[in-house]
Amino acid sequence: MISIIVPVYNAERFLKSAVNSVLNSTYQDFELILVDDGSTDSSGDICDDYASKDSRVIAIHKQNGGISSARNEGLKVSRGEFIGFMDNDDALHPQMLQILHDAIQSGDYDLAMSWASLVGEQAVLPHLADDKTAGHPTTSVLTQTDLMAGLFGQRGEDLQYMAVWNKLYRRELVEGLLFNKTASEDTEWNSRVFMRTSRAVLVDKGLYYWIQHPSSVSHAGVNSRYIDFVNSYKMCLDNIPAGLVYRSWCLEKLYKAIARVKYYARHSDLASQATSVVSKAYQETIHEFRSSRLSWINRFSLLSFYHIPSLYGLVARGAAFAARIKG
Fold this sequence. Notes:
- The chain is α/β, with parallel strands linked by helices.
- It has two domains: 2-217, Spore Coat Polysaccharide Biosynthesis Protein SpsA, Chain A, CATH 3.90.550; 220-326, no CATH class.
- Helix content is 49%, strand content 18%.
- The chain has helices spanning 15-23, 43-53, 67-77, 96-106, 124-130, 144-151, 158-162, 171-174, 185-194, 224-238, 246-264, 271-290, 296-307, 309-326, and strands at 2-8, 30-37, 57-62, 82-85, 91-92, 111-120, 139-142, 167-170, 200-212.
- Strands 1, 2, 3, 4, 5, 6, 7, 8 and 9 form a nine-stranded mixed sheet that branches.
- Helix 6 (144-151) packs antiparallel against helix 9.
- The longest helix has 20 residues, at 271-290.
- The radius of gyration is 20 Å and the shape is globular.
- The relative contact order is 0.11.
């Protein structure tokens, strides 16, 4: 059985579509755990309504504590041999669970992952209607090095590796691992999960529909969560044993976050908080960063961005302009 954990918070506009995409899966041996994280709209009632009509749906209600605490509550009550996650405003391809289940079982893998397809809010229903059959996507084996390289952006697809919602985890792999409350909770949790395995499988198909809503948290500007991404990567670094090349990859992501936060928060109301977080992370890691396995040009560039924030802004604007021209 697959346990699918969905943190729910004020999602009355999207929740039914999300839940229905799971209920309409071709794979039916699942339990759907809806964790109402103190919603103030009708989300909790929607969870209860589904639970009253379908024995596979479990509704849990708790005080608001954030996505990490909601997922942890779901993990505590889950009973499945496999664990999956979903956000309350996204959707699954009808064959996602079946394909990932077959893939993870095909070689006794610890986890299976697919790609996520970015879909606009207005386009999701037509997209689901037109894409009911995934066919027979190809698969490839991922080693621990592959997973960590993806997680820390060495392959340009870090978001796909960072997320937990496009994956199926074997219970034994994640036993005892709870989410920590941090800005990039998926990345931090996966950094611990990936250190436990050297055998995963990738399904080369976009099976998770990551729906883009203009009002979502990911579209917010500089806030405390934005600044906390620095702490997230510092936590990831603390999860990786000394001597592994993964630490250099994580340091690169950390220093990119440091440069980004230092530049964009410098004139905001949170400038003092950003300076404190960035300075602490820098002081605790600079010695290792200078002697890391990163190329000298990477180290030089990232240190230049730290000491000359305006240089980061110039490069960022140039990259954005080049992307628009290319697009």
